[in-house]
């Protein structure tokens, strides 16, 4: 499938210097796509810790089941990461689990590590047997070329319907020691925020125990990957992992709330949000990036539910695609969220222009500046419920003919 | 807006004879549309009882608020029904409530009845003031022409983006006395099953107390209007009302579970399902009618949640639009439902062809007959969770370019 780059794509892939302790290689294994890299192998130095958050789907793919088990059995140790694009190895039964074992053992052998230190992911079509032999055949060559690929090549190799590779980098300090964080992600459809969405990998040279990584990741994902939606559909393969090689040499920090981690937390959160926004900007068929800020709700959960009701409404999303300032559909979506609202306290603004108050349009409402805002690529919707202190922000994109084009015949 | 008839439209509007005790009239009041009837007045003989189910939206429209109150204060009496198309009188604040009062009082005057016996509904754009004077100006003329309109004209007058008028009729007997039930409906977008969907009115000449009507309606709606979805969006105006004029002269029945009502219950349920299916068949942009049967779930609620997760998935709906037998997306949707499933017990069939079992495609799976079924206009998806006795069937349509065309610029 050849797709035009999203009109919302960033100007270019950012400059991601290597992270000490992590080496990358990519290969064209022909899992499904021809003539492009489709397998990524990352190798981490001994002592690397890891944490992950995964799809909450009840039909999670075999690689997700493996990673959960490996993280638990291996106490968060990580030496290798193997990702393929083109086949999700989901709903493939016992054969799918055997394929994971085969791939994991191949990587464990070339990296000379325990299988539990090898993490895997597959993304692509659901329900087709994974051609593990093709991947295994590529592993030895990948091991011989570790360090030859950069993060851009890695992000490109794991993409499917993505129209641009997604990456971000941040620097910060832990207790005065400089630390780098790199992240890559893939994803543009089957994006809904009940988990880490699609595949994202973050690598840092910080020295942090696995439980600290896990706490920081869970915290960071709540307002980044778990706050985006493209189409309300939840993947069987969603995986977000954070690897810390320890090469930076900072002093150990055992408590995720330790104030010495303040800068790291902020940098990680910022990077996760950056990657999550890139996924939305590559939403299938997207032509507009939409931020929905909800406040004044009875709780943060209520604010999130209202935000997602707006973000997932096909009628809101098609109105945005048509640059139609049809705020009545926002009222509808707020109403269907099931959360407590009071018509006469509800304030709705688009592009900073207040539209409703006291249960009706504001006196002398002028649609012209709102319509002008709707013509842009960056749409901002604000909802104030006027009831409490619950606030949450979600991000989404519009629903266009492009989404139908991409998905009405994905497999052919 | 001029739309081509849905390819899923029935051959024609069925023959709906009058129901004794109910008279109809329509008029072109110019609420929003020009050159077409947009107001319906129904008058019921004294003694008519009524029940209604309404949107669960937290931003319900002013007419919905009125009907709930009128039914409670008037003990289910009904003498008049006034419906306009083109303006939903939703999110119109105190002015919207005043507009309802104005219209209700005008009808109460011409029909010489209590305001609480007058029921109203408005459907169309949200957030614009209802031009009540135009409607009131039409009421006196309507009252002089009662009985001049048939059910087809009534169904046509209340339509908005509908491409065909929706009606159904059934006959049955209560205790040997013949009874007729007529129903009309409108709706094609903003259709989601958390309530009676959009506007539907059912009139019978049976003699039944209002509490019995209410019980029968709530029961019937659960597996008809509350089992359909077009786009997962819930209207602010959904109203389904049942009026019983008593003209048939059957003996009183006070218990909705009375066995003498067996035939009436079956006829009503069948009529409601017929109307609900017509709404789906007129789903905005629909080219395929989809039945999703779920069984073997841990409860009926779980089966419904799984069915709706499939029916509301944009990826499933676009695959159906493209006639793509992409059953992996059904697996995805089952997984995101949040309901308990076990991969290895899940059976999925399309068009009667079993596709998955034991957590993977069946041995020797042949896609050809499934692909042939997907080319048709009537798609049947079956999911057996293999866990319990919970079963539910939902109906939906596909998601096509037509939906985007209709909704990206609805107001212009």
Automatic annotation (TrEMBL), chains A, B:
It is an enzyme of class 2 (transferase). GO terms for molecular function: L-glutamate N-acetyltransferase activity; L-glutamate N-acetyltransferase activity, acting on acetyl-L-ornithine as donor. One of its GO terms (biological process) is ornithine biosynthetic process. Keywords: Acyltransferase, Amino-acid biosynthesis, Arginine biosynthesis, Autocatalytic cleavage, Cytoplasm, Multifunctional enzyme, Transferase. It catalyses: L-glutamate + acetyl-CoA = N-acetyl-L-glutamate + CoA + H(+); N(2)-acetyl-L-ornithine + L-glutamate = N-acetyl-L-glutamate + L-ornithine. It is found in: Cytoplasm. The keyword Transferase applies. Pfam families: ArgJ. Substrate binds at residues 160, 186, 197, 284, 407, 412. GO terms for cellular component: cytoplasm. Catalyzes two activities which are involved in the cyclic version of arginine biosynthesis: the synthesis of N-acetylglutamate from glutamate and acetyl-CoA as the acetyl donor, and of ornithine by transacetylation between N(2)-acetylornithine and glutamate. PANTHER family: ARGININE BIOSYNTHESIS BIFUNCTIONAL PROTEIN ARGJ (PTHR23100), ARGININE BIOSYNTHESIS BIFUNCTIONAL PROTEIN ARGJ, MITOCHONDRIAL (PTHR23100:SF0). Belongs to the ArgJ family. This is Arginine biosynthesis bifunctional protein ArgJ. It comes from Roseospirillum parvum.
């Amino acid at each position: 499938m050849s797709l035009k780059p999203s009109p919302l794509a960033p100007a270019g892939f950012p400059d991601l210097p290597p992270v000490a302790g992590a080496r990358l290689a990519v290969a064209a294994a022909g899992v499904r796509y021809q003539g492009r890299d489709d397998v990524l192998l990352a190798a981490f130095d001994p002592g690397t810790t890891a944490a992950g958050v995964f799809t909450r789907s009840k039909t999670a793919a075999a690689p997700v089941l493996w990673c959960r088990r490996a993280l638990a059995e291996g106490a968060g140790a990580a030496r290798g990461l193997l990702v393929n694009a083109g086949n999700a190895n989901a709903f493939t039964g016992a054969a799918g689990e055997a394929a994971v074992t085969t791939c994991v053992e191949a990587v464990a052998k070339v990296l000379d590590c325990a299988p539990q230190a090898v993490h895997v992911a597959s993304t692509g079509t659901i329900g087709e047997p994974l051609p593990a032999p093709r991947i295994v055949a590529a592993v030895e060559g990948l091991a011989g070329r570790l360090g030859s690929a950069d993060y851009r090549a890695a992000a490109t190799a794991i993409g499917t319907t993505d129209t641009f590779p997604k990456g971000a980098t941040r620097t910060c300090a832990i207790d005065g020691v400089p630390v780098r964080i790199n992240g890559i992600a893939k994803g543009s459809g089957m994006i809904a925020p009940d988990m880490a969405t699609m595949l994202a990998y973050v690598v840092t040279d910080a020295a942090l125990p696995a439980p600290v990584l896990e706490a920081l990741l869970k915290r960071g994902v709540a307002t980044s990957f778990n706050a985006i939606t493209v189409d309300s559909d939840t993947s069987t393969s969603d995986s977000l992992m954070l690897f810390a090689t320890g090469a930076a040499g900072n002093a150990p920090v055992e408590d995720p709330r330790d104030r010495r981690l303040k800068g790291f937390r902020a940098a990680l959160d910022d990077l996760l949000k950056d990657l999550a926004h890139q996924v939305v900007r590559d939403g299938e068929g997207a032509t507009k990036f939409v931020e929905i800020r909800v406040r004044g709700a009875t709780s943060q959960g209520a604010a999130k539910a209202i935000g997602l009701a707006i973000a997932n409404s096909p009628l809101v999303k098609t109105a945005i695609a048509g640059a139609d300032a049809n705020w009545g559909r926002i009222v509808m979506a707020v109403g269907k969220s099931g959360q407590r609202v009071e018509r006469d306290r509800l304030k709705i603004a688009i592009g900073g222009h207040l539209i409703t108050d006291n249960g009706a349009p504001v006196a002398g409402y002028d649609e012209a500046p709102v319509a002008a805002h709707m013509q842009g690529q960056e749409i901002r919707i604000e909802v104030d419920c006027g009831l409490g202190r619950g606030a949450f922000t979600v991000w989404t994109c519009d629903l266009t003919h492009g989404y139908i084009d991409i998905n009405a015949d994905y497999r052919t």
